Amino acid sequence: MPDVNGSLSVLSPVRGTALSLETVPDPVFSQGMVGPGVAVHPEPGQEGGQEGTQDAVAPMDGILAKLHPHAFVVLADDGRRGVLVHLGIDTVKLKGEGFTLLAREGDRVTAGTPVVRWSPGTVAAGGLPAVVPVVALEAAPADLGDIAEGGVDGGSVLFTWT
């Protein structure tokens, strides 16, 4: 939700460890080709973690502009800022296995609304990284601040976007 100075708080869609996007084992994300952001690594033993399922939640208020089993984009209410949440790397190869849609493309969501239930363990068992890139689309790195590091809960502030 935008605050008085127009910055937007982007929440973590999952519980885990927030690390630099540069740690993502995919150059499209690690080199910032899609945009700047933060990677969240699901942790074993946390709300499902690697072993069970967990809900990936909307990182902000807005419209679900795109929704796939492995990824979604929320367009903010201002209509000019979009955030991509990608559940794992190369997870399109799983053809939806281990993912359950909890919303529909075009739905209005509020920050914290469950969007996809997924299994990091299924992703890992498929030989794929379960890391979750959260990317500010069409943003510059300097547009992001208050970037979280270390343990984050789903729904806690991951970064702000000015």
From TrEMBL:
It holds the Pfam family PTS_EIIA_1. Residues 26-138 form the PTS EIIA type-1 domain. GO terms for molecular function: kinase activity. The keyword Transport applies. It comes from the Bacteria. The keyword Kinase applies. InterPro entries: Dup_hybrid_motif (IPR011055), PTS_EIIA_1_perm (IPR001127), PTS_EIIA_component (IPR050890). GO terms for cellular component: cytoplasm. Gene3D superfamilies: Glucose Permease (Domain IIA). It is found in: Cytoplasm. Keywords: Kinase, Phosphotransferase system, Sugar transport, Transferase, Transport. Its main location: cytoplasm. One of its GO terms (biological process) is phosphoenolpyruvate-dependent sugar phosphotransferase system. This is PTS system, glucose-specific IIA component/PTS system, N-acetylglucosamine-specific IIA component.
